[in-house]
């Protein structure tokens, strides 16, 4: 009995000493999670809007051509307002966006010396660009149609265009932007006159 009591006391003493000398490991610090990349807008869908701006250009008589619209010695400059409506569709590929657009514009490009004016500029455009946050920066290429009244006669022709633009999503559905386009019409309506024009237009659209 005495031996049992001594053994019990020894075990309890040893347990107490062991418990007092044991260090409890601290809990591991939480590992911070990497921030998720900011979501970029999805541009897929149709849109329609209005544009308004300014254009300038020149009509240059080709050498050795029988011109029917103006005197052969005249190279004519023009400028004025341009504005209209447009509609298109974009397809979002991730970091890139492609699409197509049609715009119809009334113009008031007055030719020098009261020769006449360019009254309409319509365009069918292919667009392709990349996203930068809420902005879309893109290039343009396509076909253009223009009509003019010169010295009392009506003329019209098709040509080509290239340009650059930027769109910005103000809200999920409202897009604001600007576009600069260069147009070229060679031998405009068989007159022997080459016409080039550059336009800059501000744009606002509703994205569906």
UniProtKB/TrEMBL annotation:
InterPro entries, A to Z: Beta-barrel_OMP (IPR027385), OMP-like (IPR051692), OMP/PagP_B-barrel (IPR011250)
One GO term describing the cellular component: membrane
Domain Outer membrane protein beta-barrel intervals: 34-208
Chief site of localization: membrane
Signal peptide start-end: 1-19
Claim: Membrane is one of the keywords in the record: yes
Alphabetical keyword list: Membrane, Signal
Subcellular location: Membrane
Residue ranges that the Swiss-Prot or TrEMBL entry lists as coiled coil: none
PANTHER family reported for this sequence: BLL7405 PROTEIN
Recorded family membership: Belongs to the Omp25/RopB family.
Protein name (Swiss-Prot/TrEMBL): Porin family protein
């Amino acid at each position: 009995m005495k031996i049992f009591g001594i053994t019990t006391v020894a075990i309890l003493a040893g347990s107490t000493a062991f418990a007092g000398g044991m260090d409890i490991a601290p809990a591991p610090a939480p590992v911070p999670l990497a921030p998720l990349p900011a979501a970029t807008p999805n541009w897929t869908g149709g849109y329609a809007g209005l544009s308004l701006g300014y254009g300038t250009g020149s009509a240059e008589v080709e050498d050795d051509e029988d011109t029917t619209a103006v005197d052969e010695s005249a190279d004519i400059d023009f400028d004025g307002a341009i504005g209209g409506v447009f509609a298109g569709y974009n397809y979002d590929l991730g970091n890139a966006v492609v699409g197509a657009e049609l715009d119809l514009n009334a113009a008031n490009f007055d030719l020098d010396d009261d020769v006449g004016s360019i009254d309409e500029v319509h365009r069918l455009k292919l667009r392709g660009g990349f996203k930068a946050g809420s902005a879309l920066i893109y290039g343009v290429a396509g076909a253009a149609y223009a009509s003019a009244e010169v010295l009392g006669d009506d003329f019209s022709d098709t040509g080509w265009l290239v340009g650059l633009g930027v769109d910005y999503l103000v809200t999920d559905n409202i897009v604001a932007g600007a576009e600069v386009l260069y147009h070229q019409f060679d031998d405009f309506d068989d007159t022997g006159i080459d016409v080039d024009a550059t336009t800059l237009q501000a744009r606002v659209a509703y994205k569906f």
